[in-house]
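WARN  no MSA supplied for this record, continuing single-sequence
INFO  ligand: phenylalanine
INFO  echoing inputs
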Amino acid sequence: MSGASRGEFSSSFGFIMAAAGSAIGLGNIWGFPTQTAQNGGAAFVILYLIMAFLVGYPILLAEFTIGRHSQSNPVGAYKSIKGGSRFVPVGFLGLFTVGLILSFYSIIAGTMVAYFISPFLSLVGANDAAAWVISQGVGANMLFASLFFFLTILIVAAGVKNGIEKWSSRLMPTLLLILVLLVIYVLTLDGAMEGLKVYLLPDFSKVLSAGLFTSALGQAFFSLSLGVGSMLVLASYTSKKENLVRLGRLVTLSDVGIAFLAGLLIIPAMYAASASGTQIFDEAGNLISGPNLIFQVLPALFNSMGSIGVALSIVFFFLMIIAALTSTISMLEVPVAYAVDNRNVARSKASIAIGVFFWAVSMTIALNFDLLFNLVVTMTTQYIQPLLGLFICIFVGWVMSRNTLIEELKQGNPEIENSFFMKIWPLFVRYVSPILILIILIQAF
Ligand code: PHE
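INFO  complex generated
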């Protein structure tokens, strides 16, 4: 299928917003602070940064290169690049995995919507409804996850320029603004400084645990949307004039930067909540963490602040919805791109059919939440994403010819051939990243 009918970003700003929008999501604002609280504060932050730059960025650039070179989705890319035919199943695993991620992700994203509208329901006196929506019961989960699927399908069906680019470019700057304002406000609260210390001063006794490496790696993969093809597909819509090395660096830095900012918001907010009477430590004296951290501690903090708290809560959950939506569109886009490129299905039809399929998966997870939710999260993010990343390293590092890579990266970046970067990056993709992934995967089993 030709470039024009696949769709293309109209500017590098549009592409950056879409790629950063994919990367920045619940993984940054919900996952990262939660994991940091769970794993000893600053120590985890450092380990995460190492993983993001040593493993994440080289693989991100590998995905960008395959995507723009093939102008296709993961399956189409492996089919069209010399030596790639044996990797086609890896492409399909990516399509399916990203759908599973979309299925669980929409449930959490839906809860953000619930917390967003609950204050409005209270305002009109519908107190029972206000309590029901945030109950996280099966019914509420199903309702709000469905709503999220609906929005995602609508935007993906609208196409690359009028859907993904338009909405990412509107939503991402809003997100940054809201986040910075919230951080500034929270840091003025009593108790916040204590949280800041926990966040920024490492407790190195925790770094050494093996599980921490798996978590930090999984977090880096998840947060940078790696392995499953989202970045590959987005890059396939960029122009040959763009400098992929620079764009990859920008996306990695903005992703890490937003995660860091979110930590600056959430961890001090926990201590501020503690100063106003909310319990933030469990019986063992550890910070409360786990998936519910944001839903327990933050609303308690907001509640203790009267009407300004209501406003802050609405703003915060709006921020979460934006972050999640720009990520879910980049998930659904992957299998949709496959259907459009390789199966000649119209974009709108593909978006609806594939969207409805994974919506059904999502409903199954919601109906069997205790059984399935954590299982699907761990399986997809901690095991399959790194595994897919490993295959990408093998493909780009060992199968694709160096010439093809250089020719692709040279477009938009003519000096790259003899640059220091071009000496280092292939070494990372061939050795450093795959070996780190292998070690961590093996010890995880
Ligand atoms: N990176 C997104 C986040 O941090 C999640 C994501 C994973 C998006 C995989 C696309 C693909 O929330």
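DSSP finds 19 helices and no strands in the chain.
INFO  checksum written, moving to next record
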